[in-house]
TrEMBL record:
Belongs to the UPF0162 family. It comes from Vibrio zhugei. Residues 34-184 form the Protein SirB1 N-terminal domain. PANTHER family: F-BOX ONLY PROTEIN 21, SI:DKEY-261L7.2. This is SirB1 family protein.
Length: 269
């Protein structure tokens, strides 16, 4: 279980915080190997960039190294695969999603002195590039390409509806703790799709250490317990959600589930 506060996550590189999270969910996460691989790649990048001194040109050379020579890329075939959210697997497979690839970019930026900041945009994770005395621009970690304001507006409309307008708060720098929270939810959903319920249960338990009474997280935990045949515990979690969120459309459906589960024999695990 995690014994870290939000401040602890904010004080460490996002990639290292993600490794802590990954290991808390899956003890087989290769943390030591991942850290060694990160150090190896940093050394390789420093060597490759020795002839580049001008900031923007040096950054362009690094992005070429990261996406072309090292071969990191967004996983278009299996975007929702849980492997894309575990840093050790991303380093091994050279595939990821915006938040995991973005965390790696932030890690290298810290070591190579690139002015990167994390942005928790509503549709996906972004990297803000802020050179001194220059207008900030945004990179899509999935591809390494710059994202225009027009594209960001289009993404927002697709996500929230035609009346949505791009606002400064959508592009503000985000603390690591907030990103880790979103990352945890992403991993849980991926594990649920893959029916890896034991690991998904660890995600809900971790989430509840930060927000102990979250009825939606408790509802999800109830679903997981139901899949694990722990019907009595599942019914208890569902009932908590019903009591806390009686007007939610899911409450009526869950009442039926509670009645059905209450009639089942209790299975002890």
């Amino acid at each position: 279980m995690l014994n870290l506060s939000d401040d602890d996550f904010d004080e460490m590189p996002l990639a290292e915080g993600a490794l802590v999270l990954n290991e808390a969910i899956d003890s087989e996460t290769r943390v030591a190997w991942a850290k060694e691989e990160l150090e190896r790649l940093v050394a390789e990048a420093k060597q490759a960039l020795t002839t580049h001194t001008h900031g923007p040109a040096r950054l362009e050379a690094f992005l070429q190294l990261f996406y072309q020579e090292w071969g990191f890329k967004g996983d278009q075939e299996a975007y929702f695969d849980a492997s894309n959210a575990f840093i050790d697997k991303v380093l091994e497979r050279r595939k990821g999603i915006p938040v995991s690839l973005g965390a790696l970019l932030l890690y290298f930026a810290d070591k190579l002195d690139f002015p990167f900041e994390a942005v928790n945009f509503p549709t996906q994770f972004l990297i803000k590039v802020v050179w001194p005395e220059s207008t900030a621009y945004y990179l899509n970690p999935f591809s390494g390409e710059e994202v225009s304001q027009h594209t960001l507006q289009a993404w927002l409309v697709g996500h929230k509806g035609p009346l949505s307008q791009l606002k400064p708060e959508h592009l503000k720098t985000t603390d690591h703790a907030t990103i880790i929270g979103r990352w945890l939810a992403l991993i849980k959903n991926a594990l649920l799709r893959e029916e890896r319920y034991t690991l998904a249960l660890r995600c809900t338990d971790l989430a509840l250490t930060f927000v102990p009474d979250d009825p939606y997280e408790i509802r999800d935990r109830g679903f997981i317990y139901q899949q694990l045949d722990c019907h009595h515990v599942a019914a208890s979690d569902y009932q908590y959600f019903i009591d806390q969120c009686p007007d939610d459309p899911a409450a009526e459906l869950l009442k039926t589930q509670v009645n059905a589960l209450s009639r089942d024999d209790v299975t002890v695990h």
